Amino acid sequence: MRIGILTGGGDCPGLNAVIRAVVLRAVRDHGWQVTGFRDGWRGVLEDHHVELDPARVRGILARGGTILGSSRVNPDTLRASIDTIRTVLAANGIDALIPVGGEGTLQAAHWLSSHDIPVVGVPKTIDNDIDCTDVTFGFDTAVEIATDAIDRLHTTAESHQRVMVVEVMGRHTGWIALHSALAAGAHQVLTPETPFDIEQVCAGLRRRFDEGDNFAVVVAAEGATPAPGTMPFDEGYIDQFGHRRFAGIARQLQAEIGRRLDREVTTTVLGHLQRGGTPTAYDRVLASRLGGRAVEAIRNGKYGTMSALRGTQIELVPLVDAVARLKTVPGDTCAELSALL
């Protein structure tokens, strides 16, 4: 048996832990061979690959990023290349493929599965927005990084009596924003699930100042948007991969809050800092368990599935269910966490 593995989409702490776990389980436990495709789906389309063995993955558990590299491929290009994909997999003797990625990568995995290509997916995203799994690896690391940054920004905001707007990742969901805002004691949080009214945001800040505080920290997910007509808003644009390129919610909030409150407002955009560096212990363990379960799914012929965390157990769920929708923050959860700020 020879299995292939690729890492697609944005990089994420814990990807190397998955690769390591897949190689160790496949080679040591079953005597299989493992081929790693370089740069995500592009490596499959261009037949760019590397052989993986236990020596090759030694020492990568704690490394951020992915030793296989990653890239984004236009979904239309991928769909038009099914014959190329079949040819490359056959030429390399690939019996089953493990794509590790987020929404786009898993959508592609489901599409391949529907064309009878043996696939088992592993969910990856710092945004924690993949359905059918309680948590995705990378999320814990991203929240830790964001929390540490917000902790540090508290002191400079207080020293200079500023309003500090911190923009964190979260295109469609506010998991990182909510968890980091609560963990770091921020004063307001804005998420994509609930369009905000800028006047209500400013009213909350005014109350804080009226009560004697002289600074505030606002955490905003990058995909947060104002309610229609409440403030001028630049929505950005859609790129070639179908993803929205945001114009910067923190910068737009800076202008509006500064004008309405007549206070100094500064911004910090954490950006790719949340994706980089060493994964937390939690993410290393979770990623390893998800990778190992994918190998066992292949051994048992459970194709068209995704390894997932359900409670404390790693289980298999159908890819068709995992990609049916994004896992957004429920309204009651958002209200519960926001009430604790």
From TrEMBL:
Coiled coil start-end: none
Amino acids binding Mg(2+): 103
Cofactor(s) recorded in Swiss-Prot or TrEMBL: Mg(2+)
Matching Pfam families: PFK
EC number: 2.7.1.11
One GO CC annotation: 6-phosphofructokinase complex
Biological or metabolic pathway of the protein: Carbohydrate degradation; glycolysis; D-glyceraldehyde 3-phosphate and glycerone phosphate from D-glucose: step 3/4
Residues annotated as the enzyme's active site: 127 (proton acceptor)
Residues reported to bind ATP: 10, 72-73, 102-105
Catalytic activity: beta-D-fructose 6-phosphate + ATP = beta-D-fructose 1,6-bisphosphate + ADP + H(+)
Record bears the keyword Cytoplasm: yes
PANTHER family per the UniProt record, alphabetical: ATP-DEPENDENT 6-PHOSPHOFRUCTOKINASE 3, PHOSPHOFRUCTOKINASE
The protein's name: ATP-dependent 6-phosphofructokinase
Organism: Actinocatenispora thailandica
